Amino acid sequence: MTTQEDITRYANILQMDSDFVAPFVSGSQNTSIPIQESFPEVETITSNSTKCGGNFSVDEDNLLVSAWLNIGMDAVQGTDQRAERFWEKIWQYFGENNTYGTTRSISSLQSRWGNINRETSRFAGFMAKIEARNASGGTDEDKLKEAKELYKTSPAPSTGKKSAFAFEHCWVVLKNQPKWSTPKERSKGLLHTPSSIDQVGSNDDDTVVVERPIGRKAEKAKRKRIDGDKGFQDFLMKKLQFIEESREQEKEALRIKADRVQVDAQRADIEKERLHLETIREAKRDDMKKDRLRLETIREEGKIMAMDTSGMNDRERLYFENLKDQILARQQLE
């Protein structure tokens, strides 16, 4: 439920230009260094691809907002940053990420941020009013449309002129930051108990509370814890990788062993086949040897059978006649 205090706080936003940057650029938590008391008129915004003269493009505005958030909200850098060093870092960040072919000085970035800061803060006040009117109904799109119309029909405090809201592209990025958040968003717990450095503005009774980034020690402890978790995760990953590699090596060893068994079996089959063939060849050699002996025997026996015994004496004739009888008897048996 939006209270009168919420409306009062956002009314004070309209008076806060560069004061919001004080927590991030002060030399200590108890000393504020104002950046600029007043800012030039809102510059005309060119399209994303077209930049005329010294005007900032939408892309440049978004880059400047990104630089301010990254440098101002860096907990490791801390909020104890002096203005000069703070804007040097923003200028450096802007230059390193600027791909739009423009060159901006520190004073140009400060001036442009002053416009963005003032007008988006002013728009935040109108959004707070719309939230108060439509606390129980209306879509976010309807509320945004009403706030833009209210902005357009309300004269600017610094000039008294009326104009359309030219920094909606910046508002989209900044609206979730504490200074620009609506009471509805604050009720979700976006803001915390204020400390001395969180209080922005000159009115002690109506103070806008700005969310302070996490402390440097806490951030470092958080990152150390994250790094420790990451180290443990890396250890687990390496352990799992080692286990997987061991499993693969074991599988490979088993495969090699199986291949070796298969090769040994093949070698045994080959040796068995070789021995079988050798046996066959040996048998053939024996058969051939037998055939040669048989042929030799046949030739010798043929000579004996053809031998003329008429000129022999009785003993010789009887011997050869017996041989012939034996040859004939063996042939009959075969």
From TrEMBL:
Pfam families: NAM-associated (PF14303). It comes from the Eukaryota. Residues 164-327 form the No apical meristem-associated C-terminal domain. It comes from Lithocarpus litseifolius. Residues 181-204 are annotated as: Disordered. The lineage of its organism: Eukaryota, Viridiplantae, Streptophyta, Embryophyta, Tracheophyta. Residues 193-202 have a biased composition (Polar residues). This is No apical meristem-associated C-terminal domain-containing protein.
